[in-house]
Amino acid sequence: MAMAMPASPSPIRLDCSPLVSRFGAARTARRACVIRAGIESTSVSMSRQGLGPILLVGVTGGTGGSVVNGLLASGVDGSQLRVLTREPAGVAARNLAARGVQAVAGDLDDPRSLNEGLEGVQAIYCHATSKDAAKADPAGDVRAETLAKAAVSAGVKHIVYNSTGGGGHGISQVEQKHNIEKIFRDSGIPTTNLRATMFMEEFWKVYTRPQILKGRFPFSMPSDKPLQLVSVKDMGLAAGIALKEPEEYGGLSLELAGDELTPAQMCEAYSKAQGSNVSHFSPPKFLFWFLNRDLYRIAKFLSEKGYEADVADCRKRFPGLLTFSEFLELTHWGDASRNYADGFKY
């Protein structure tokens, strides 16, 4: 999940699900982003050479293709990847199959359906257990429990989970992500929690990009407050590296960011990418109180606290993480004929 703040105070149009788990701006004094998850005593026997099949969960949605791109860029072979999907003959599954990725039928709401997909699997990458929404979906926790139990039964040795930073602020989606971390940790399977900051892809969405292309960047935080950013593709890149190095990453929680810019600096990047001036506008936080309490808490978090990833450490651990300017260039930001709904592509 990752979200961008609304375009303007009236009307305010938001896809509440993504923003909640990816809002992010760093403190001036950041602390190290690596936290031991409390299962250091659990040994990880998997070697890099013996990685085996990897099951991908929750990657058939709008950002899933970018995650798979990142996994492949990390050096993971496409033939090792299995995508769990309710519709193995669907468009998303067929697109992934074109890159050598196998689609297997399975549904987290039906535990018995997971057996085939988990056969022989050594590791799991879990991107999501529920769809993006304005509030946390309780079914997401139940599905995580189902997945954890099935993984234990199948002898899975490592889980990499797409989590989020910013816990402890009462934002339902974020708190759910951290609860799912606990579910996986309590299963006894060494788990790597990649806690993403703001997904760069969020600014491509309909509630933000059209206004930016017109010269106004609506984002509810101070113009001089740093915002930490990471691309969805780089979530896959980091996950691939973690999956190949379970001895190092099993049991770690790592806040992930590839760049850090203030909204004013982001406007400079937008202006260069689209060839026209862009200025920042910060909608008043109190407006979100009436729209959605989670959105208000996000705006408060962005303005007063923010993410705490160590960007330099992340870039050292995961070579190739995109800067925001590189992301805008690779996605052809300035081409107004392209849009997120038609399929986001690099």
Automatic annotation (TrEMBL):
Keyword check for NAD: no
Q: Which UniProt keywords apply?
A: NADP
> Which residue intervals define the domain NmrA-like in the entry?
54-285
The UniProt entry, under Pfam families, shows: NmrA
Q: Which domain of life is it from?
A: Eukaryota
**PANTHER family tied to this protein:** NITROGEN METABOLITE REPRESSION PROTEIN NMRA FAMILY MEMBER, NMRA-LIKE DOMAIN-CONTAINING PROTEIN
Family statement drawn from the similarity comment of this UniProt entry: Belongs to the NmrA-type oxidoreductase family.
Protein name per its UniProtKB record? NmrA-like domain-containing protein
Which species is this record about?
Ceratodon purpureus (Fire moss)
